[in-house]
Amino acid sequence: MAASQAKMCAAAIVELPAGRQPDPAPVIANTCYSATSSTTAGHVAHVYRFEAGKGHVAQPEGGATVRGDETNFTYMESWSKNIWAIVPSGLHR
Q1: Alpha-carbon span 64 to 85, nearest angstrom
Q2: Three-state SS for 56?
Q3: Structure pTM?
Q4: What is the pLDDT of residues 70-91, one digit of tens each?
Q5: pLDDT digits (tens, 9 = 90+) for 11-56
Q6: CATH of residue 66
Q7: Would you call 83 exposed, middle or buried from its count of C-beta atoms within 10 A (0-12, 13-18, 19+)?
Q8: What angle do CA 87, 4, 39 make, to 5 degrees?
Q9: Domain that holds residue 73
Q10: 17: in domain
Q11: CA dist., res. 92 & res. 79, Å (int)
Q12: CA 26/CA 22 separation, integer angstroms
């Protein structure tokens, strides 16, 4: 979720100096995978929507896998490579 939040903040930083307002109702998606064995994994996925009129994030939408499986293990491998690719060098060691 931190990567999504950082991207949202970066987008606002780009908009403000250009004289434009950032998105007043940003949406952040978060997915996290965890291995459940050496060949299976499960995931948790949520979508967070900021309600500008209320000044807070609405109850997240989403869910989780009931049990790990091999398909999610494959997704987990790709997900983790993508996450580590955007983390600055040295922070994940």
Answers
A1: 24
A2: strand
A3: 0.68
A4: 999 999 999 999 888 877 665 5
A5: 999 999 999 999 888 888 889 999 999 999 999 999 998 888 888 8
A6: 3.90.760.10
A7: middle
A8: 65
A9: 24-86
A10: no
A11: 15
A12: 9
